[in-house]
């Protein structure tokens, strides 16, 4: 039987990224299994900084959204589960905006033109950041795409998920709703 770690090294229906060894040192197979399961997994590491340009080149910082619950999603246009999730995350962000939910979609490693073309057809109800050289995704241990994180109102990651996530399921939405009520 192949371990989750080995499965991620070879590809989990998404491309495994080359910096798996950092996460492999920090997480055992149980943590990876939880992060790739059907629901959110607890995040136990410190929250890395997130400072990147938006699509117009202005620097954006995750710390600017303190006081809100933030979905941070690392994605790419070539990633089918990412393309499917963006409209669902956007709907959730719009539905809970008044309660303080924000969406930060971090494109990983693609040219601005490609990202802009995609977003013209599938707009994001939030801020799109551009991680052109994948440096931020490496710091966030986004070893596969999509990689989604739930950041609490104080700016700390509480939950994460690697791979496809059912944004309509009660399990997924309940965690987001619970964080909004804190």
Explain how this protein is built.
This protein has 182 residues and is of the alpha/beta class. The protein has one domain (4-180): Glutaredoxin (3-Layer(aba) Sandwich), CATH 3.40.30. 35% of the residues lie in helices and 21% in strands. The protein contains 7 helices and 8 strands. It has helices at 4-10, 20-26, 29-35, 80-95, 112-121, 135-139, 170-180; strands at 41-42, 51-53, 59-61, 69-75, 101-108, 127-131, 147-151, 157-162. A 6-stranded mixed β-sheet has the order 1-8-7-4-5-6, sandwiched between helices. A two-stranded antiparallel ribbon has the order 2-3. The longest helix is centred in the middle third of the chain and has 16 residues, at 80-95. The protein is globular.
Give descriptors for this structure.
two-stranded antiparallel sheet, alpha/beta, Glutaredoxin, 182 residues, 21% strand, globular, six-stranded mixed beta sheet
């Amino acid at each position: 039987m192949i371990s989750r770690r080995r499965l991620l090294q070879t590809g989990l229906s998404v491309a495994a990224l080359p910096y798996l060894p950092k996460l492999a040192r920090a997480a055992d197979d149980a943590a990876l299994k939880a992060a790739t399961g059907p629901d959110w997994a607890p995040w136990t590491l410190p929250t890395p900084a997130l400072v990147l340009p938006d699509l117009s080149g202005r620097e954006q910082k995750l710390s600017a959204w303190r006081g809100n619950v933030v979905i941070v999603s690392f994605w790419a246009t070539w990633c089918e589960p990412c393309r499917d999730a963006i409209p669902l995350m956007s709907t959730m962000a719009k539905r809970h905006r008044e309660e303080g939910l924000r969406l930060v979609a971090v494109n990983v490693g693609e040219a601005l033109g490609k990202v802009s073309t995609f977003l013209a057809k599938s707009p994001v109800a939030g801020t799109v950041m551009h991680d052109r050289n994948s440096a931020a995704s490496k710091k966030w241990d986004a070893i596969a795409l999509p990689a989604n994180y739930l950041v609490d109102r104080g700016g700390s990651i509480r939950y994460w998920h690697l791979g496809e996530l059912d944004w309509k399921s009660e399990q997924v939405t309940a965690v987001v709703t619970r964080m909004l009520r804190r």
